[in-house]
Specification:
Blueprint lengths: L3 H12 L2 E2 H10 L5 H4 L12 H4 L1 H17 L6 E6 L5 H10 L5 H4 E6 L3 H10 L6 E3 L10 E6 L8 E6 L2 E10 L2 E6 L18 E4 L3 H12 L3 E10 L8 E4 L2 E3 L9 E3 L2 E2 H8 L3 E2 L3 E2 H7 L2 H9 L4 H15 L1 H5 L2 E7 L12
Parallel strand pairs: 2-3, 2-5, 3-4, 5-10, 10-14
Antiparallel strand pairs: 1-7, 6-7, 6-9, 7-8, 10-17, 11-12, 11-13, 15-17, 16-17
Helix pairs in contact: 5-6, 9-10, 12-13
Bound molecules: S-adenosyl-L-homocysteine.
S-adenosyl-L-homocysteine (SAH) binds next to α4.
């Protein structure tokens, strides 16, 4: 059995159709055949690009935001600089580089990374060499230190389940086998207690991310002892229909077309994040464009532009626009911050 499709078909024949969450989980993180387990998917040659890979300015703005919060919280002498799903390690590397401008910040930081992919752990070891990162499989083993934590495009990789309203019950969207191909099907109607108060018209598809509340609650619990967590992802306040998306070589495709060879994501519901984060103090949801503007990205972009000409200048201007413009990543991507109940929110976030 050498492809993930064979593995999935065998699993379906043995135990029946899979939930979308089971399918996503195998596609992304199967130990030998999963998408993240087997490759470095970022950049031009890969399947998609993320904000830290577009420009160093993204990590610089978030780094200064965390450093300012660290100052406001009395400069704890030791803290965990934590990233969830660090990809190539670029974001944390940029935070540590810009953090050198703030006396004592880098010296106080212990780098912790939550990463499931052995392949990406190797890439992170190279980009963060000199900072002795400590890796974790889950947030539950993070140290009991003030947490200054970033998660960019991490929650969107957590497996979701999809439910379709049918009267007072729900049918679940499942992945099943049709000969040698994978196809979607609907389960018989069942009650879903988690969606008991979710009143939507018949036929509406609602997504839910079973792993999200526990993960956010665990982060919030740690942050309540000091620090801040910033989640950035694409999504809205509430689930709006089917957002399961596959990307391969920078183009969207059918999520069942190439299991294990395409990135699979779903939009994040920030209402679910906010709800799971209490009793930590939670900011309003802010768009990425507004957040980066408030943190001073345009002044930084102008300063960097002074040293550039020709194609490098054009690329820099395009990168700034991609990160902030409402028709690019500026509006679709949202940010939310968590701090201890009595603490001030990080700069750029509204109460
Ligand atoms: N934050 C990075 C990478 C985003 S891609 C960036 O902005 O460029 C998602 C990252 O989360 C990858 O590093 C992937 O391997 C990791 N990941 C996905 N699901 C995970 C899980 N359940 N546990 C730990 N890491 C996970």
């Amino acid at each position: 059995m050498d492809t993930l499709r064979d593995h999935l078909l065998a699993r379906i024949h043995a135990t029946g159709p899979l939930t979308v969450a089971d399918y996503m989980s195998d596609c992304l993180l199967h130990p030998t055949l999963g998408y993240y387990s087997t490759r470095d998917p970022f950049g031009k040659a890969g399947d998609f690009t993320t904000a830290p890979e577009i420009s160093q300015m993204f990590g610089e703005m978030l780094g200064l935001c965390l450093a300012q919060t660290w100052i406001e919280q009395g400069r704890p002498a030791r803290f965990a600089l934590t990233e969830l799903g660090p990809g190539r390690g670029t974001l944390t590397a940029d935070v540590l580089r810009v953090g050198r401008a703030v006396a004592g910040f880098v010296e106080a930081a212990e780098v912790h990374l939550v990463e499931a992919s052995p392949t990406l752990r190797e890439v992170q070891a190279a980009s963060l060499s000199g900072h002795a990162p400590v890796w974790h499989d889950t947030v539950d083993t993070l140290p009991e230190l003030p947490q200054f934590l970033l998660a960019n495009e991490f929650l969107d990789a957590l497996p979701i389940r999809q439910h379709v309203r049918d009267g007072t019950e729900w049918r679940e969207r499942l992945v099943t086998a049709d000969g040698d191909s994978l196809t979607f099907a609907l389960s018989p109607p069942v009650p879903v207690p988690e969606l008991a108060h979710h009143d939507v018209p018949d036929g509406t598809l609602v997504e839910r991310c079973p792993g999200l509340p526990g993960l956010v609650a665990s982060v919030a619990d740690r942050v309540s002892g000091g620090g801040a967590a910033i989640f950035i992802d694409y999504g809205h306040w509430r689930s709006r229909g089917d957002t399961l998306q596959a990307l391969r070589a920078h183009a969207p495709e059918d999520p069942l077309a190439h299991p294990g060879q395409a990135d699979l994501t779903a939009h994040v519901d920030f209402e679910a994040v906010a709800r799971a984060a209490r009793p930590a103090r939670v900011s309003l949801m802010t768009t990425q464009g507004v957040l980066l503007e408030r943190l001073g990205i345009t002044a930084r972009a102008q300063a960097l532009a002074r040293g550039l000409t020709g194609a490098a200048l054009d690329a820099h201007v395009t990168a700034h626009r991609r990160l902030t413009h409402p028709t690019k990543m500026g509006d679709l991507f949202k940010a939310m911050a968590l701090v201890p109940p009595e603490a001030a929110l990080p700069p750029g976030f509204d109460p």
